[in-house]
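Entry type: protein chain
Record version: 2
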Amino acid sequence: MAEPIWQNIFDGKTLKGWTQKNGKAPYRVEDGQVVGTTKVGEPNSFLCTDVIYGDFILEYDFKVHPKMNSGVQIRSNSFSEYKNGRVHGYQVEIDPSDRAWTAGIYDEARRGWLNNLEKNPKAQKAFKQNEWNHIRIEARGDSIKTWLNGAPAADLKDGMTARGFIGLQVHSTKEKESMQIRWKNIRLQDLDRPFPTAKPEKEQRKE
């Protein structure tokens, strides 16, 4: 059986196929990158794929301001009946602080930390401050695994949510200084739809 095809879910030029939810922190495209910038007074902002994914392998590179917290939502949803559309679900953390839990798994707007890296010093040390970092995520059934710059990071078994969108987070802030996070090379193997058509069907399914 042939391997699933890698899809570039960000085209490097526009935000086509993505929709912003919750906060209004600005996102733009620059030099083939998605650039998210903090905005005082705004709640957490999320730039979300229009396509819903279940099982997949996701890879991306990011570079983040040293004082900025961020993350990438996976298998996440936004329903009017849940906290007025609040984005919720698994988040693969981006944490440049001394705590160094980048690639740990947090449950946004639900249960909090599910798999931090306090017992994984190798993964904690894998983060590169003020440089590009690479994340790999494998979501298969109730298993979610992450790698940071090649180092195994989180290994979670959790079956609460099987499907949802992918979202790029700009965290709320009280800092007046504008801080940025950049993502590039965002690509995915859709294990549910391994050989997609040119225009994947937009889906809206509940958890």
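Comment: The first strand starts at residue 6 and ends at 8.
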